[in-house]
User: Fold this.
Amino acid sequence: MVIAIDAMGGDHGPRVTVAGAAEALSRDTSGRLRFVLHGDEALIAPELAKLPALKAVATIAHTDQFIAMDEKPAQALRRKGTSLFAAIASVKARDAHAVVSAGNTGALMALSKMLLKMMTDDLERPAIACGWPNEKGGMGTVLDVGANVTSDANQLIEFAVMGTAFHRAVRGKDRPTVGLLNVGSEDVKGHEEVREAHRILREGVDGINYHGFVEGDDIGKGTVDVVVTDGFTGNIALKTAEGTAKFVKNLFKGALKSTPLAMAGALLASSALKKMARSVDPGAANGGPLLGLNGIVVKSHGGAEAWAFSNAVSVAISLAASTYEHDIRQALAQVNSAHGLKSDTVPADKAVDEKVS
Assistant:
């Protein structure tokens, strides 16, 4: 299995991406994992030299061009020599099974859609899924968290199909439960599109273990395994949760340093506190796949450190080792055949559809 890494992506570049790949490798037991690190060899090689286990299974695909975090997607589409372009192209050429990048999200989305295309003509653009820790000690899945600002009923059902396949592949649950995020659990609540999706899902869609409507607090409770929503709502929920987690973490730090007695108590409880901090760290759920593409693309947080980036790499490895792509294609074909679904979404912006000249 070959994983392509955009080694220049993110806020920290090779210092994090190379170390993160090494940490993901240390958890692998297959003995078949290989990496191709795309980027500037002068910057990658010194990091790789520190990690002999990774060096033994990794090659460097050199390019001194990379996409800046603030670069516009339209610009990125025209630059064929960048590390991100090359990494995604390797998946298209079947030289790699998956690509992982912590780089520019807009560029990643645009290049992935242009190079890999969508699984079916009915899919307008990918959905981004993310892991979400819950109070049951598990990890749920929420999608979309930013790719599609608005979504009609048919798209929401497609998200349910893709989210189910993703959760099964990465979390190992054969029949994950699915809920539609809404402002209440009653059938009359919510806007027309979410009510229509609820009606169709409640009547029964093959392969979807539908629970019903869920509310915002159900995400953290773990009421369902997969929470489906539009990208506007999902992104706000995600950023709010991440901000709240950081806020609470800083409150704890301040309280535990406030007095000598508090500091002594913190020392005694340090192992438990570290475990709690790690469980609510956004890095624990790092790695959002772009679902619906003809290929596996995983987005890492741009500011991720090595441990968090390694979790994104592990998501890519799990997807590449599964039947996830086949499951999605089969399920979407069945849903479209049974329900005649066709999305009425606004076309993706011009930058995403623009061709490389």
Observations:
- The CA atoms of residues 40 and 64 lie 5 Å apart.
- The chain has 15 helices and eleven strands.
- Residues 343-357 have pLDDT under 50 and may be disordered.
